[in-house]
Amino acid sequence: MNTETSQTQTGQEIIQGYLRTLDASPGVYRMLDSESRVLYVGKARNLKNRVSNYARSSGHSARIATMISHTASMMFLTTKTETEALLLEQNLIKQLKPKYNVLLRDDKSFPNILISKDHDFPRIDKHRGAKKKKGTYFGPFASAGAVNRTLNTLQRAFLLRTCSDSDYESRTRPCLQHQIKRCSAPCVGKIPADDYQQLVKDAERFLSGKSTEMQTQLAAQMQAASDDMEFERAAALRDRIKALTQVQTSQGINPRGVTEADVIALHRDGGQACVQVFFIRANQNWGNRDYYPRVNGDEDPAEVMQAFIGQFYADREPPRMLLLSHGVDDEDLVGEALSEKAERKVELIVPQRGEKAELVSNAARNARESLGRKMAETATQARLLRGLKEAFDLAEIPQRVEVYDNSHIQGAFAVGAMIVAGPDGFDKNQYRKFNIRGDELTPGDDFGMMKEVLTRRFKRLLKEDPNRELGTWPGLLLIDGGAGQVSAVREIMDDLGVSDVPMVGVAKGVDRDHGKEEFYRTGQPVMALPRNDPVLYFIQRMRDEAHRFAIGTHRAKRSKAIGATPLDDVPGVGATRKRALLQHFGSAKAVGRAALADLKAVDGISDALAETIYGYFNEN
Hints:
Layout: H1 11-18, E1 27-32, E2 38-44, H2 47-54, H3 62-70, E3 73-78, H4 82-96, E4 112-116, E5 124-127, E6 135-138, H5 144-158, H6 165-170, H7 176-179, H8 193-207, H9 211-227, H10 231-250, E7 261-269, E8 272-281, E9 284-291, H11 301-312, E10 321-324, H12 331-342, E11 347-349, H13 354-391, E12 401-409, E13 412-422, E14 425-426, E15 432-435, H14 446-464, E16 476-480, H15 483-496, E17 503-507, E18 518-521, E19 524-527, H16 534-563, H17 575-585, H18 588-593, H19 596-600, H20 607-619
Parallel strand pairs: 7-10, 10-11, 12-16, 16-17
Antiparallel strand pairs: 1-2, 1-3, 4-5, 4-6, 7-8, 8-9, 12-13, 13-14, 13-15, 17-18, 18-19
Protein backbone atom coordinates (compact mmCIF):
# COMPACT_ATOMS: atom_id res chain seq x y z
CA MET A 1 0.00 0.00 0.00
CA ASN A 2 1.04 3.59 -0.55
CA THR A 3 -0.57 6.74 0.83
CA GLU A 4 -0.33 10.32 -0.43
CA THR A 5 0.84 12.73 2.28
CA SER A 6 0.77 16.46 2.79
CA GLN A 7 3.89 18.35 1.76
CA THR A 8 3.75 20.25 5.07
CA GLN A 9 4.27 17.13 7.19
CA THR A 10 7.69 16.15 8.43
CA GLY A 11 9.11 12.73 7.66
CA GLN A 12 8.59 11.68 11.26
CA GLU A 13 4.90 12.68 11.16
CA ILE A 14 4.43 10.86 7.87
CA ILE A 15 5.88 7.65 9.31
CA GLN A 16 3.74 8.07 12.47
CA GLY A 17 0.63 8.19 10.28
CA TYR A 18 1.27 4.70 8.90
CA LEU A 19 1.28 3.03 12.33
CA ARG A 20 -2.55 2.91 12.41
CA THR A 21 -2.58 0.68 9.31
CA LEU A 22 0.10 -1.80 10.42
CA ASP A 23 -0.07 -4.95 12.50
CA ALA A 24 2.49 -7.40 13.92
CA SER A 25 3.00 -9.27 10.63
CA PRO A 26 6.50 -9.85 9.24
CA GLY A 27 7.28 -8.09 5.98
CA VAL A 28 9.27 -5.59 3.97
CA TYR A 29 8.94 -1.81 4.02
CA ARG A 30 10.14 0.86 1.60
CA MET A 31 10.75 4.52 2.37
CA LEU A 32 10.27 6.90 -0.57
CA ASP A 33 11.07 10.56 -1.16
CA SER A 34 8.78 13.25 -2.58
CA GLU A 35 9.43 12.01 -6.14
CA SER A 36 8.71 8.37 -5.24
CA ARG A 37 12.36 7.33 -5.43
CA VAL A 38 13.17 4.52 -3.00
CA LEU A 39 15.40 5.73 -0.16
CA TYR A 40 15.60 2.55 1.88
CA VAL A 41 14.37 -1.03 1.91
CA GLY A 42 14.15 -2.94 5.20
CA LYS A 43 12.61 -6.11 6.64
CA ALA A 44 10.93 -6.65 9.96
CA ARG A 45 9.75 -9.52 12.17
CA ASN A 46 7.01 -7.15 13.35
CA LEU A 47 6.25 -4.32 10.93
CA LYS A 48 4.38 -2.15 13.45
CA ASN A 49 7.20 -2.29 16.02
CA ARG A 50 9.91 -1.72 13.44
CA VAL A 51 8.26 1.30 11.82
CA SER A 52 7.45 2.80 15.23
CA ASN A 53 11.20 3.03 15.87
CA TYR A 54 11.50 5.49 12.96
CA ALA A 55 8.66 7.58 14.42
CA ARG A 56 10.71 8.35 17.55
CA SER A 57 11.99 11.91 17.79
CA SER A 58 15.52 10.99 18.91
CA GLY A 59 18.07 8.18 19.13
CA HIS A 60 18.81 7.94 15.41
CA SER A 61 22.20 8.00 13.70
CA ALA A 62 22.91 10.90 11.34
CA ARG A 63 22.23 8.68 8.33
CA ILE A 64 18.87 7.43 9.62
CA ALA A 65 17.82 10.93 10.75
CA THR A 66 18.54 12.30 7.27
CA MET A 67 16.66 9.44 5.64
CA ILE A 68 13.63 10.04 7.88
CA SER A 69 13.64 13.76 7.04
CA HIS A 70 13.51 12.94 3.32
CA THR A 71 10.73 10.36 3.65
CA ALA A 72 7.49 11.45 1.95
CA SER A 73 5.71 8.07 1.77
CA MET A 74 6.12 4.40 2.59
CA MET A 75 5.17 1.09 1.00
CA PHE A 76 4.66 -2.24 2.78
CA LEU A 77 4.47 -5.88 1.78
CA THR A 78 3.62 -8.52 4.37
CA THR A 79 5.07 -12.04 4.20
CA LYS A 80 4.31 -15.35 5.90
CA THR A 81 7.67 -15.61 7.66
CA GLU A 82 10.59 -13.40 8.57
CA THR A 83 12.87 -15.59 6.42
CA GLU A 84 10.70 -14.84 3.40
CA ALA A 85 10.91 -11.13 4.30
CA LEU A 86 14.72 -11.31 4.46
CA LEU A 87 14.95 -12.90 1.00
CA LEU A 88 12.53 -10.36 -0.46
CA GLU A 89 14.42 -7.48 1.16
CA GLN A 90 17.74 -8.47 -0.44
CA ASN A 91 16.14 -8.98 -3.86
CA LEU A 92 14.54 -5.52 -3.69
CA ILE A 93 17.83 -3.93 -2.62
CA LYS A 94 19.64 -5.46 -5.59
CA GLN A 95 16.85 -4.38 -7.93
CA LEU A 96 16.15 -0.86 -6.63
CA LYS A 97 19.62 0.15 -5.29
CA PRO A 98 18.26 2.46 -2.56
CA LYS A 99 20.41 5.41 -1.48
CA TYR A 100 20.60 4.55 2.24
CA ASN A 101 21.11 0.78 2.04
CA VAL A 102 24.46 -0.96 2.08
CA LEU A 103 24.84 -1.95 -1.56
CA LEU A 104 26.99 -4.61 -3.21
CA ARG A 105 28.20 -2.91 -6.39
CA ASP A 106 30.23 -5.62 -8.14
CA ASP A 107 27.96 -8.61 -8.76
CA LYS A 108 29.53 -10.65 -11.54
CA SER A 109 29.08 -14.41 -11.68
CA PHE A 110 31.97 -16.70 -10.86
CA PRO A 111 33.50 -19.21 -13.26
CA ASN A 112 33.50 -22.96 -12.67
CA ILE A 113 35.33 -25.92 -14.17
CA LEU A 114 33.01 -28.25 -16.08
CA ILE A 115 33.78 -31.85 -17.01
CA SER A 116 31.12 -32.63 -19.61
CA LYS A 117 29.14 -35.86 -19.60
CA ASP A 118 27.40 -35.65 -22.98
CA HIS A 119 30.24 -37.22 -24.99
CA ASP A 120 32.12 -40.54 -24.99
CA PHE A 121 35.33 -38.55 -24.44
CA PRO A 122 34.41 -35.74 -22.00
CA ARG A 123 36.07 -32.36 -22.27
CA ILE A 124 37.26 -30.14 -19.42
CA ASP A 125 36.49 -26.46 -19.78
CA LYS A 126 35.76 -23.17 -18.04
CA HIS A 127 32.05 -22.48 -17.52
CA ARG A 128 30.24 -19.33 -16.42
CA GLY A 129 26.51 -18.83 -15.97
CA ALA A 130 23.57 -21.18 -15.48
CA LYS A 131 24.51 -24.84 -14.97
CA LYS A 132 22.39 -26.22 -17.81
CA LYS A 133 24.99 -28.41 -19.53
CA LYS A 134 25.19 -32.06 -18.56
CA GLY A 135 28.33 -32.74 -16.53
CA THR A 136 30.11 -32.26 -13.21
CA TYR A 137 30.79 -28.71 -12.01
CA PHE A 138 33.62 -27.68 -9.70
CA GLY A 139 33.74 -24.20 -8.25
CA PRO A 140 33.26 -21.38 -7.81
CA PHE A 141 36.67 -19.95 -8.63
CA ALA A 142 37.35 -16.34 -7.73
CA SER A 143 38.36 -15.25 -11.24
CA ALA A 144 38.91 -16.39 -14.80
CA GLY A 145 42.64 -16.23 -14.11
CA ALA A 146 42.31 -18.70 -11.21
CA VAL A 147 40.35 -21.09 -13.44
CA ASN A 148 42.78 -20.77 -16.34
CA ARG A 149 45.80 -21.49 -14.13
CA THR A 150 44.12 -24.57 -12.69
CA LEU A 151 42.94 -25.74 -16.13
CA ASN A 152 46.43 -25.40 -17.61
CA THR A 153 47.90 -27.54 -14.85
CA LEU A 154 45.07 -30.08 -14.99
CA GLN A 155 45.69 -30.48 -18.72
CA ARG A 156 49.30 -31.41 -18.02
CA ALA A 157 48.27 -33.75 -15.22
CA PHE A 158 45.30 -35.54 -16.80
CA LEU A 159 45.63 -34.90 -20.57
CA LEU A 160 41.91 -34.20 -21.04
CA ARG A 161 40.73 -32.48 -24.18
CA THR A 162 39.51 -28.86 -24.14
CA CYS A 163 38.46 -28.58 -27.80
CA SER A 164 34.84 -28.12 -28.84
CA ASP A 165 32.84 -31.12 -30.02
CA SER A 166 32.84 -29.83 -33.60
CA ASP A 167 36.64 -29.47 -33.60
CA TYR A 168 36.91 -32.93 -32.08
CA GLU A 169 34.79 -34.50 -34.81
CA SER A 170 36.63 -32.80 -37.65
CA ARG A 171 40.21 -33.65 -36.64
CA THR A 172 42.26 -36.06 -38.74
CA ARG A 173 45.56 -35.66 -36.89
CA PRO A 174 46.58 -34.58 -33.36
CA CYS A 175 46.55 -30.87 -32.57
CA LEU A 176 49.24 -28.76 -30.90
CA GLN A 177 47.89 -29.59 -27.43
CA HIS A 178 48.93 -33.21 -27.96
CA GLN A 179 52.34 -32.16 -29.25
CA ILE A 180 53.07 -30.19 -26.06
CA LYS A 181 51.75 -33.04 -23.88
CA ARG A 182 48.52 -31.40 -22.73
CA CYS A 183 46.07 -33.74 -24.41
CA SER A 184 45.94 -37.50 -24.95
CA ALA A 185 44.45 -37.00 -28.47
CA PRO A 186 41.32 -39.18 -28.17
CA CYS A 187 40.09 -37.49 -31.38
CA VAL A 188 42.44 -39.66 -33.49
CA GLY A 189 42.44 -42.76 -31.30
CA LYS A 190 45.70 -42.18 -29.43
CA ILE A 191 44.14 -43.46 -26.19
CA PRO A 192 41.57 -46.23 -25.56
CA ALA A 193 38.17 -45.15 -24.22
CA ASP A 194 38.64 -46.99 -20.91
CA ASP A 195 41.99 -45.33 -20.25
CA TYR A 196 40.53 -41.90 -21.06
CA GLN A 197 37.62 -42.50 -18.68
CA GLN A 198 40.14 -43.32 -15.94
CA LEU A 199 41.83 -39.95 -16.56
CA VAL A 200 38.43 -38.27 -16.23
CA LYS A 201 37.80 -40.04 -12.91
CA ASP A 202 41.26 -39.03 -11.66
CA ALA A 203 40.59 -35.39 -12.54
CA GLU A 204 37.25 -35.47 -10.73
CA ARG A 205 38.87 -37.03 -7.66
CA PHE A 206 41.54 -34.35 -7.61
CA LEU A 207 38.98 -31.54 -7.91
CA SER A 208 36.98 -33.21 -5.12
CA GLY A 209 39.91 -32.92 -2.73
CA LYS A 210 41.37 -36.43 -2.97
CA SER A 211 44.71 -35.22 -4.28
CA THR A 212 46.97 -36.74 -1.58
CA GLU A 213 45.51 -40.21 -2.07
CA MET A 214 45.86 -39.88 -5.83
CA GLN A 215 49.48 -38.71 -5.68
CA THR A 216 50.33 -41.74 -3.51
CA GLN A 217 48.79 -44.05 -6.11
CA LEU A 218 50.58 -42.28 -8.97
CA ALA A 219 53.87 -42.55 -7.10
CA ALA A 220 53.34 -46.31 -6.71
CA GLN A 221 52.49 -46.64 -10.41
CA MET A 222 55.58 -44.64 -11.36
CA GLN A 223 57.81 -46.91 -9.25
CA ALA A 224 56.22 -50.02 -10.77
CA ALA A 225 56.75 -48.69 -14.30
CA SER A 226 60.36 -47.90 -13.48
CA ASP A 227 60.89 -51.39 -12.07
CA ASP A 228 59.45 -52.86 -15.26
CA MET A 229 61.85 -50.74 -17.33
CA GLU A 230 58.88 -48.75 -18.79
CA PHE A 231 60.75 -45.50 -18.51
CA GLU A 232 58.56 -43.50 -20.88
CA ARG A 233 55.44 -44.35 -18.83
CA ALA A 234 57.33 -43.62 -15.61
CA ALA A 235 58.35 -40.20 -16.95
CA ALA A 236 54.73 -39.42 -17.91
CA LEU A 237 53.56 -40.33 -14.40
CA ARG A 238 56.33 -38.21 -12.90
CA ASP A 239 55.13 -35.21 -14.95
CA ARG A 240 51.57 -35.75 -13.71
CA ILE A 241 52.73 -35.80 -10.08
CA LYS A 242 54.71 -32.57 -10.61
CA ALA A 243 51.70 -30.89 -12.20
CA LEU A 244 49.44 -31.84 -9.28
CA THR A 245 52.00 -30.55 -6.80
CA GLN A 246 52.19 -27.27 -8.73
CA VAL A 247 48.43 -26.73 -8.39
CA GLN A 248 48.62 -27.21 -4.63
CA THR A 249 51.64 -24.95 -4.09
CA SER A 250 50.24 -22.16 -6.29
CA GLN A 251 47.05 -22.08 -4.23
CA GLY A 252 48.97 -20.90 -1.16
CA ILE A 253 46.46 -21.74 1.56
CA ASN A 254 45.10 -25.29 1.56
CA PRO A 255 43.40 -25.88 4.91
CA ARG A 256 43.32 -29.43 6.23
CA GLY A 257 40.33 -29.02 8.53
CA VAL A 258 38.04 -26.97 6.26
CA THR A 259 36.61 -28.87 3.31
CA GLU A 260 34.07 -26.36 1.98
CA ALA A 261 33.66 -22.75 3.10
CA ASP A 262 33.64 -19.12 2.05
CA VAL A 263 35.87 -16.98 4.25
CA ILE A 264 34.41 -13.45 4.47
CA ALA A 265 36.26 -10.62 6.21
CA LEU A 266 35.28 -6.94 6.53
CA HIS A 267 37.58 -3.96 7.03
CA ARG A 268 36.42 -0.33 7.31
CA ASP A 269 38.37 2.90 7.21
CA GLY A 270 37.61 6.50 6.35
CA GLY A 271 33.93 5.90 5.67
CA GLN A 272 34.70 3.13 3.16
CA ALA A 273 34.53 -0.66 3.40
CA CYS A 274 36.21 -3.65 1.80
CA VAL A 275 34.94 -7.21 2.03
CA GLN A 276 37.39 -9.96 1.09
CA VAL A 277 36.01 -13.38 0.11
CA PHE A 278 38.16 -16.53 -0.10
CA PHE A 279 36.70 -19.65 -1.70
CA ILE A 280 37.68 -22.93 -0.04
CA ARG A 281 36.50 -26.05 -1.87
CA ALA A 282 37.73 -29.64 -1.52
CA ASN A 283 40.31 -28.45 1.06
CA GLN A 284 41.81 -26.20 -1.62
CA ASN A 285 41.98 -22.43 -2.01
CA TRP A 286 40.20 -21.57 -5.25
CA GLY A 287 41.03 -17.88 -5.16
CA ASN A 288 39.78 -14.69 -3.55
CA ARG A 289 38.08 -11.48 -4.59
CA ASP A 290 37.61 -8.11 -2.92
CA TYR A 291 34.39 -6.08 -2.89
CA TYR A 292 33.76 -2.46 -2.00
CA PRO A 293 30.11 -2.19 -0.94
CA ARG A 294 28.54 1.25 -0.90
CA VAL A 295 28.22 2.36 2.72
CA ASN A 296 27.18 5.63 4.30
CA GLY A 297 29.77 5.54 7.08
CA ASP A 298 27.76 5.05 10.27
CA GLU A 299 26.53 1.46 9.83
CA ASP A 300 27.82 -1.04 12.38
CA PRO A 301 29.90 -4.00 11.06
CA ALA A 302 27.08 -6.49 11.70
CA GLU A 303 24.73 -4.49 9.45
CA VAL A 304 27.30 -4.29 6.64
CA MET A 305 28.14 -7.99 6.92
CA GLN A 306 24.49 -9.07 6.89
CA ALA A 307 23.67 -6.85 3.90
CA PHE A 308 26.68 -8.17 2.01
CA ILE A 309 25.86 -11.84 2.70
CA GLY A 310 22.20 -11.35 1.72
CA GLN A 311 23.02 -9.75 -1.62
CA PHE A 312 26.08 -11.91 -2.37
CA TYR A 313 24.12 -15.17 -2.09
CA ALA A 314 20.88 -13.86 -3.61
CA ASP A 315 21.65 -15.69 -6.87
CA ARG A 316 24.50 -17.98 -5.79
CA GLU A 317 24.52 -21.30 -3.98
CA PRO A 318 26.13 -20.87 -0.55
CA PRO A 319 28.72 -23.39 0.72
CA ARG A 320 28.21 -25.49 3.84
CA MET A 321 30.06 -23.00 6.03
CA LEU A 322 30.65 -19.25 6.15
CA LEU A 323 33.65 -18.17 8.23
CA LEU A 324 33.10 -14.52 9.18
CA SER A 325 35.23 -11.77 10.68
CA HIS A 326 32.11 -10.18 12.23
CA GLY A 327 28.79 -11.64 13.29
CA VAL A 328 25.48 -10.58 11.73
CA ASP A 329 22.42 -9.10 13.45
CA ASP A 330 20.10 -12.03 12.72
CA GLU A 331 22.43 -15.03 12.63
CA ASP A 332 19.71 -17.68 13.01
CA LEU A 333 17.52 -16.01 10.42
CA VAL A 334 20.33 -15.59 7.87
CA GLY A 335 21.46 -19.18 8.43
CA GLU A 336 17.90 -20.44 7.95
CA ALA A 337 17.50 -18.42 4.72
CA LEU A 338 20.79 -19.69 3.29
CA SER A 339 19.99 -23.29 4.32
CA GLU A 340 16.61 -23.01 2.63
CA LYS A 341 18.26 -21.74 -0.54
CA ALA A 342 20.96 -24.45 -0.55
CA GLU A 343 18.53 -27.20 0.57
CA ARG A 344 21.05 -28.29 3.22
CA LYS A 345 22.42 -26.85 6.44
CA VAL A 346 24.62 -23.73 6.14
CA GLU A 347 26.59 -22.65 9.21
CA LEU A 348 27.70 -19.09 10.05
CA ILE A 349 30.78 -19.11 12.28
CA VAL A 350 32.92 -16.31 13.74
CA PRO A 351 35.96 -18.43 14.76
CA GLN A 352 38.08 -17.36 17.74
CA ARG A 353 40.98 -19.82 17.53
CA GLY A 354 42.53 -22.57 15.45
CA GLU A 355 42.83 -22.97 11.69
CA LYS A 356 39.47 -21.35 10.96
CA ALA A 357 40.49 -18.20 12.87
CA GLU A 358 43.77 -18.11 10.90
CA LEU A 359 41.84 -18.23 7.63
CA VAL A 360 39.65 -15.30 8.74
CA SER A 361 42.71 -13.37 9.96
CA ASN A 362 44.39 -13.83 6.59
CA ALA A 363 41.26 -12.62 4.77
CA ALA A 364 41.01 -9.61 7.11
CA ARG A 365 44.62 -8.67 6.37
CA ASN A 366 43.90 -8.86 2.65
CA ALA A 367 40.79 -6.70 3.12
CA ARG A 368 42.82 -4.07 5.02
CA GLU A 369 45.56 -3.96 2.40
CA SER A 370 43.07 -3.90 -0.51
CA LEU A 371 41.14 -1.02 1.02
CA GLY A 372 44.39 0.92 1.55
CA ARG A 373 45.27 0.52 -2.13
CA LYS A 374 41.73 1.42 -3.17
CA MET A 375 41.73 4.61 -1.10
CA ALA A 376 45.10 5.65 -2.57
CA GLU A 377 43.81 5.01 -6.10
CA THR A 378 40.62 6.93 -5.35
CA ALA A 379 42.62 9.94 -4.13
CA THR A 380 44.73 9.85 -7.30
CA GLN A 381 41.61 9.56 -9.46
CA ALA A 382 40.06 12.56 -7.68
CA ARG A 383 43.16 14.65 -8.49
CA LEU A 384 42.98 13.61 -12.16
CA LEU A 385 39.28 14.49 -12.45
CA ARG A 386 40.02 17.83 -10.82
CA GLY A 387 42.83 18.25 -13.36
CA LEU A 388 40.34 17.73 -16.21
CA LYS A 389 38.18 20.51 -14.83
CA GLU A 390 41.13 22.90 -14.67
CA ALA A 391 42.59 21.92 -18.04
CA PHE A 392 39.36 22.42 -19.97
CA ASP A 393 37.77 25.20 -17.85
CA LEU A 394 34.78 23.06 -16.88
CA ALA A 395 32.11 24.45 -14.57
CA GLU A 396 32.52 21.52 -12.15
CA ILE A 397 34.60 18.42 -11.59
CA PRO A 398 33.24 15.66 -13.88
CA GLN A 399 32.07 12.63 -11.92
CA ARG A 400 31.43 10.65 -15.08
CA VAL A 401 33.57 10.86 -18.21
CA GLU A 402 32.29 9.08 -21.34
CA VAL A 403 34.70 8.26 -24.17
CA TYR A 404 33.46 7.13 -27.60
CA ASP A 405 35.17 5.28 -30.43
CA ASN A 406 34.19 3.37 -33.60
CA SER A 407 35.69 0.29 -35.20
CA HIS A 408 35.11 -1.30 -38.63
CA ILE A 409 36.88 -2.68 -41.69
CA GLN A 410 35.93 -0.54 -44.70
CA GLY A 411 32.49 -0.15 -43.14
CA ALA A 412 31.95 -3.87 -42.47
CA PHE A 413 31.08 -5.19 -38.99
CA ALA A 414 30.82 -1.60 -37.77
CA VAL A 415 30.42 -1.05 -34.03
CA GLY A 416 30.48 1.94 -31.71
CA ALA A 417 31.85 1.75 -28.19
CA MET A 418 31.48 3.83 -25.04
CA ILE A 419 33.65 3.49 -21.94
CA VAL A 420 33.11 5.28 -18.63
CA ALA A 421 35.58 6.62 -16.07
CA GLY A 422 34.77 8.18 -12.70
CA PRO A 423 35.99 8.60 -9.13
CA ASP A 424 36.66 4.85 -8.83
CA GLY A 425 38.50 4.53 -12.15
CA PHE A 426 37.10 2.68 -15.14
CA ASP A 427 33.52 1.57 -14.50
CA LYS A 428 33.27 -1.49 -16.72
CA ASN A 429 29.70 -2.22 -15.69
CA GLN A 430 28.75 0.99 -17.50
CA TYR A 431 30.56 0.20 -20.78
CA ARG A 432 28.22 0.00 -23.78
CA LYS A 433 28.56 -1.27 -27.33
CA PHE A 434 26.43 -0.16 -30.28
CA ASN A 435 25.90 -2.28 -33.39
CA ILE A 436 25.72 0.28 -36.19
CA ARG A 437 22.31 -0.12 -37.83
CA GLY A 438 22.27 2.73 -40.38
CA ASP A 439 21.72 1.06 -43.76
CA GLU A 440 21.99 4.41 -45.51
CA LEU A 441 25.49 5.07 -44.15
CA THR A 442 28.37 5.13 -46.59
CA PRO A 443 30.89 2.39 -45.66
CA GLY A 444 33.54 3.96 -43.46
CA ASP A 445 31.47 7.09 -42.65
CA ASP A 446 32.84 7.79 -39.16
CA PHE A 447 30.76 10.96 -38.81
CA GLY A 448 27.56 9.05 -39.59
CA MET A 449 28.44 6.26 -37.17
CA MET A 450 29.22 8.71 -34.37
CA LYS A 451 25.93 10.48 -35.03
CA GLU A 452 24.00 7.21 -34.72
CA VAL A 453 25.78 6.21 -31.53
CA LEU A 454 25.32 9.54 -29.74
CA THR A 455 21.72 9.91 -30.91
CA ARG A 456 20.83 6.50 -29.51
CA ARG A 457 22.76 7.13 -26.30
CA PHE A 458 21.23 10.51 -25.46
CA LYS A 459 17.69 9.68 -26.60
CA ARG A 460 17.80 6.87 -24.07
CA LEU A 461 19.17 9.19 -21.37
CA LEU A 462 16.42 11.72 -22.04
CA LYS A 463 13.84 8.96 -21.70
CA GLU A 464 15.25 7.18 -18.61
CA ASP A 465 16.71 10.11 -16.65
CA PRO A 466 15.27 13.39 -17.96
CA ASN A 467 16.01 15.25 -14.71
CA ARG A 468 19.61 14.05 -14.53
CA GLU A 469 19.26 12.68 -11.01
CA LEU A 470 20.48 9.09 -11.39
CA GLY A 471 24.16 9.81 -12.02
CA THR A 472 24.01 8.43 -15.57
CA TRP A 473 24.60 11.73 -17.37
CA PRO A 474 28.20 12.50 -18.33
CA GLY A 475 30.06 15.49 -16.94
CA LEU A 476 32.41 15.37 -19.95
CA LEU A 477 32.44 13.72 -23.39
CA LEU A 478 35.74 12.78 -24.99
CA ILE A 479 35.47 12.28 -28.74
CA ASP A 480 38.18 10.65 -30.86
CA GLY A 481 38.72 13.30 -33.54
CA GLY A 482 39.47 16.90 -34.36
CA ALA A 483 37.54 20.06 -35.22
CA GLY A 484 35.26 18.41 -37.79
CA GLN A 485 34.29 15.62 -35.44
CA VAL A 486 33.59 18.02 -32.57
CA SER A 487 31.50 20.26 -34.81
CA ALA A 488 29.43 17.30 -35.99
CA VAL A 489 28.89 16.05 -32.45
CA ARG A 490 27.89 19.52 -31.25
CA GLU A 491 25.28 19.68 -34.01
CA ILE A 492 23.91 16.32 -32.91
CA MET A 493 23.73 17.45 -29.29
CA ASP A 494 22.03 20.72 -30.22
CA ASP A 495 19.39 18.81 -32.19
CA LEU A 496 18.71 16.66 -29.13
CA GLY A 497 18.50 19.69 -26.84
CA VAL A 498 21.45 18.72 -24.64
CA SER A 499 23.95 21.34 -25.70
CA ASP A 500 25.08 21.96 -22.11
CA VAL A 501 27.13 18.72 -21.88
CA PRO A 502 30.85 19.65 -22.18
CA MET A 503 32.83 17.84 -24.88
CA VAL A 504 36.44 17.72 -26.02
CA GLY A 505 37.83 16.25 -29.22
CA VAL A 506 41.12 14.37 -28.83
CA ALA A 507 43.19 14.30 -32.03
CA LYS A 508 46.63 12.82 -32.63
CA GLY A 509 49.10 15.65 -33.04
CA VAL A 510 52.22 15.95 -35.15
CA ASP A 511 53.37 12.56 -36.49
CA ARG A 512 50.35 10.99 -34.71
CA ASP A 513 52.61 10.59 -31.69
CA HIS A 514 51.63 9.95 -28.06
CA GLY A 515 52.26 13.11 -26.10
CA LYS A 516 51.47 15.50 -28.95
CA GLU A 517 47.69 15.25 -28.77
CA GLU A 518 45.65 18.32 -29.64
CA PHE A 519 42.34 19.15 -27.97
CA TYR A 520 39.41 20.79 -29.73
CA ARG A 521 36.46 22.55 -28.07
CA THR A 522 33.55 24.37 -29.65
CA GLY A 523 34.29 28.09 -30.12
CA GLN A 524 37.76 27.92 -28.57
CA PRO A 525 41.25 27.67 -30.03
CA VAL A 526 43.00 24.33 -30.29
CA MET A 527 45.13 23.55 -27.25
CA ALA A 528 47.68 21.02 -25.99
CA LEU A 529 48.87 19.86 -22.58
CA PRO A 530 52.50 19.64 -21.42
CA ARG A 531 54.07 16.33 -22.44
CA ASN A 532 54.62 15.21 -18.83
CA ASP A 533 51.21 16.34 -17.50
CA PRO A 534 49.44 13.54 -15.53
CA VAL A 535 46.11 14.72 -16.98
CA LEU A 536 47.47 14.06 -20.48
CA TYR A 537 48.43 10.51 -19.47
CA PHE A 538 44.94 10.08 -17.98
CA ILE A 539 43.28 11.14 -21.24
CA GLN A 540 45.57 8.84 -23.23
CA ARG A 541 44.63 5.91 -21.00
CA MET A 542 40.92 6.62 -21.43
CA ARG A 543 41.25 6.95 -25.20
CA ASP A 544 43.31 3.75 -25.43
CA GLU A 545 40.76 1.90 -23.28
CA ALA A 546 37.93 3.06 -25.57
CA HIS A 547 39.93 1.91 -28.60
CA ARG A 548 40.64 -1.47 -26.96
CA PHE A 549 36.98 -1.98 -26.13
CA ALA A 550 35.84 -0.95 -29.63
CA ILE A 551 38.37 -3.25 -31.33
CA GLY A 552 37.42 -6.19 -29.09
CA THR A 553 33.71 -5.67 -29.80
CA HIS A 554 34.38 -5.40 -33.54
CA ARG A 555 36.44 -8.60 -33.58
CA ALA A 556 33.78 -10.50 -31.66
CA LYS A 557 31.13 -9.37 -34.15
CA ARG A 558 33.35 -10.28 -37.11
CA SER A 559 34.20 -13.73 -35.68
CA LYS A 560 30.54 -14.48 -35.07
CA ALA A 561 29.66 -13.50 -38.62
CA ILE A 562 32.50 -15.55 -40.08
CA GLY A 563 31.42 -18.64 -38.14
CA ALA A 564 27.77 -18.28 -39.14
CA THR A 565 26.18 -20.55 -41.77
CA PRO A 566 22.77 -20.58 -43.49
CA LEU A 567 21.92 -23.59 -41.31
CA ASP A 568 21.72 -21.28 -38.27
CA ASP A 569 18.38 -19.93 -39.54
CA VAL A 570 16.72 -23.27 -40.39
CA PRO A 571 13.91 -24.05 -37.90
CA GLY A 572 14.58 -27.18 -35.85
CA VAL A 573 18.31 -27.38 -36.65
CA GLY A 574 20.35 -26.97 -33.50
CA ALA A 575 24.04 -27.50 -32.84
CA THR A 576 23.89 -31.33 -32.89
CA ARG A 577 21.90 -31.61 -36.13
CA LYS A 578 23.95 -28.86 -37.73
CA ARG A 579 27.10 -30.84 -36.94
CA ALA A 580 25.57 -34.04 -38.35
CA LEU A 581 24.61 -32.27 -41.60
CA LEU A 582 28.02 -30.67 -42.04
CA GLN A 583 29.81 -33.98 -41.39
CA HIS A 584 27.59 -35.76 -43.89
CA PHE A 585 27.69 -33.19 -46.71
CA GLY A 586 30.93 -31.31 -45.96
CA SER A 587 29.53 -27.74 -46.17
CA ALA A 588 26.37 -25.69 -45.71
CA LYS A 589 26.30 -25.00 -49.45
CA ALA A 590 26.22 -28.74 -50.14
CA VAL A 591 23.35 -29.13 -47.67
CA GLY A 592 21.41 -26.48 -49.58
CA ARG A 593 21.94 -28.33 -52.89
CA ALA A 594 21.12 -31.78 -51.45
CA ALA A 595 18.14 -33.79 -52.64
CA LEU A 596 15.35 -34.62 -50.21
CA ALA A 597 16.24 -38.32 -50.19
CA ASP A 598 19.86 -37.51 -49.31
CA LEU A 599 18.75 -35.30 -46.41
CA LYS A 600 16.57 -38.10 -45.03
CA ALA A 601 19.59 -40.41 -45.05
CA VAL A 602 21.50 -38.31 -42.47
CA ASP A 603 21.63 -39.80 -38.96
CA GLY A 604 19.47 -37.81 -36.56
CA ILE A 605 17.45 -36.06 -39.30
CA SER A 606 13.81 -37.15 -39.36
CA ASP A 607 11.74 -37.19 -42.51
CA ALA A 608 9.77 -34.15 -41.35
CA LEU A 609 12.92 -32.16 -40.56
CA ALA A 610 14.48 -33.20 -43.89
CA GLU A 611 11.43 -31.76 -45.65
CA THR A 612 11.74 -28.55 -43.60
CA ILE A 613 15.43 -28.18 -44.55
CA TYR A 614 14.73 -28.95 -48.21
CA GLY A 615 11.84 -26.49 -48.27
CA TYR A 616 13.90 -23.76 -46.61
CA PHE A 617 16.70 -23.84 -49.18
CA ASN A 618 14.48 -24.36 -52.21
CA GLU A 619 11.96 -21.68 -51.26
CA ASN A 620 14.73 -19.15 -50.58
